[in-house]
Sequence to fold (91 residues):
Amino acid sequence: MGAVDDDTTLVTMVRDLQLADDIPSDPALCDDVPMDIVCTPTRTLRIDMPLPKPSGVNWDKLSPEEESQKLMRKGHQQKSHAKARRDMMHD
Fold:
């Protein structure tokens, strides 16, 4: 896809209890993707860790539920785009 490079700011939202003080720096040992900013309900953290950005989505690590959600989002996006095209044709 090429949508993410080293200049892309990666941001996520998590619950406070999902934060960890220590994560492995070896990508093979960690399922998490390095983030630049982490937002919780109570705070926003800027992460200053020189970990490499992902080169893309690691599709093998998606759970069946995540895969299902991805397909549902894709279907919703396709419907939204089709509606936008119809709306433009009627304007």
